[in-house]
Write a structure and sequence with these properties.
453 residues, alpha+beta, Rossmann fold, single chain, Dna Ligase, domain 1, 16 helices, 22 strands, globular, binds adenosine-5'-diphosphate, D-amino Acid Aminotransferase, Chain A, domain 1
């Protein structure tokens, strides 16, 4: 493996280029028309155009990406997150083209990409799952009502193909079950081309805590502790941290054990994340498995000192990783990540693209890490995700990490567009956040204090 095509853009493309460089690997960037002069393109050793701005006509087109690899002599593909990262057909196409796929086996991506199938696999590996139903036959009205009653309300109707917070609807009474199932089926059919749904008990005031795992493909796997990702809006994460505040050691240990059991049962290959929701009583349940590097991986890197992307590349390259042992993996201090978005929290988090007239992130240091794919003068466009940077800080403890985050947010100068920085500062100074009293409804619960005015 010598030249890695990065089938992505923005901060994650730049992030992958960094690890390739440390391993002596050449990099090939791909770009759409609006990204011709983007940071990831200038940082890569080589680059190829793959079409118009809409991702559907460029970053998501298998043939164009594979053609770029062939043309530029790349022999491996790293998909990053999003775009084609969890597309099993793409992974297969990469392998069929004789290239190295930096990711898990296509069959694993297929298994875990179907949320209901993933639940069954988790259950058979002994991992607790949220009480729920199997996938539903759309016409089985009686069965639907019986399942709803058995699970109890409130519950969630979930699309098996769902992702990114899309394809999930809450139902509070039996009366509304049928119509919500139909609405979710229609929505999922439109968004994912697959309208299959199932039911899941809605856990009230849960925390979202996930375990970072790494599997060697032969049944061995290690974990890199947990990340707490409870500060969300519209089921999407905004702030993540590690360790999870106030989590009992025995809960943390059993979650890690459960995550490893699933990773080992799957003979998982590469970096992956097992997501759980944790109920206020401390019980935890499997939510889903993400078969890729996550947006929030830097908090784990900050406390463990591991370069997870380099690890993905080394496994794909065939390096001998047998020396990696769980007992050698340790964590020190506390790390927090804030996702900086071009969006207006005071207008229901509406995206706010535009020119970055001033863009001066704080400097990277022992305690501050900035991952971004943008520079001053660049445009934030409507075409892609409005995340403009990930700001990560660490400290000897949580309070220090929060203080460092506040200082770094103060230092971050952005002009030309509206960002969520003032909102992030309000979270960082909120007494409930300081207490670690987080749950997925945190933003909604404290809306009055977190929104301007
Ligand atoms: P997606 O793949 O769309 O991200 P997930 O299944 O990972 O969907 O869930 C995303 C978020 O939705 C979780 O972090 C949590 O906030 C909420 N959620 C999902 N399932 C449940 C549930 N059964 N009870 C309560 N909240 C849930």
């Amino acid at each position: 493996m010598q030249k890695v095509l990065i089938a992505n853009r923005g901060e994650i493309a730049c992030r992958i280029i960094r690890s390739c460089r440390t391993l002596g690997l050449n990099t090939l960037a791909v770009y759409s028309e609006v990204d011709q002069r983007a940071k990831h393109v200038t940082e890569a050793d080589d680059s190829r155009a793959i079409g118009p701005a809409p991702a559907k006509e460029s970053y998501l087109v298998f043939e164009k990406v594979l053609e770029a690899a062939k043309d530029a002599g790349a022999d491996a593909v790293h998909p990053g997150y999003g775009f084609l990262a969890e597309n099993a057909d793409f992974a297969r196409a990469v392998l069929d083209a004789g290239l190295t796929w930096v990711g898990p086996r296509p069959e694993t991506i297929t298994d875990m990409g179907d949320k209901e199938r993933a639940r069954m696999l988790a259950q058979s590996a002994g991992v607790p799952i949220v009480p729920g139903s199997p996938r539903f036959d759309a016409d089985d009205n009686e069965g639907l009502e019986a399942s709803g009653t058995e699970i109890g309300f409130p519950l969630l109707v979930k699309a098996t193909a769902g992702g990114g917070g899309i394809g999930m609807k809450r139902v509070d009474t039996l009366k509304n079950l049928r119509e919500t199932v139909e609405a979710t089926e229609n929505m999922a059919e439109k968004a994912f081309g697959d309208g299959t749904v199932y039911l899941e008990k809605l856990i009230e005031r849960p925390r979202h805590i996930e375990i970072q795992i790494f599997g060697f493909g032969d049944g061995r796997a290690v974990h890199y502790f947990e990340r707490e990702c409870s500060i969300q809006r519209r089921f999407q994460k905004i702030i993540e941290e590690s360790p999870a505040p106030d989590l009992l050691k025995e809960t943390r240990d059993s979650m890690a054990r459960a995550a490893l059991a699933l990773a080992k049962a799957e003979c998982y290959q590469g970096a992956g994340t097992i997501e759980f929701i944790v109920a206020p009583d401390g019980n935890f349940y499997f939510l889903e498995m993400n078969t890729r590097i996550q947006v929030e991986h830097p908090v784990t890197e900050f406390i463990t000192g591991e370069d997870l992307v380099a690890l993905q590349l080394r496994l794909a390259r065939g390096d001998d990783l047998s020396a990696i042992r769980q007992t050698d993996i340790t964590a020190t201090g506390h790390a927090i990540e804030c996702r900086i978005y071009a969006e207006n929290p005071d207008k229901n988090f509406l995206p706010s693209p535009g020119p970055l007239e001033v863009f001066k992130p704080p400097a990277n240091s022992e305690t501050v890490r900035v991952d971004t794919g943008l520079r001053q003068g660049d445009q934030v466009t409507y075409f892609y995700d409005p995340m403009i940077a990930k700001l990560v800080t660490r400290g000897a403890n949580r309070i220090e990490a929060i203080e460092n985050m506040l200082a770094a947010l103060d230092d971050f100068r952005i002009e030309g567009i509206v960002t969520n920085i003032p909102f992030l500062k309000r979270v960082m100074t909120h007494p409930a956040y300081h207490k670690g009293a987080t749950h997925t409804g945190f933003v909604e619960e404290h809306k009055a204090e977190l929104m301007e005015g």
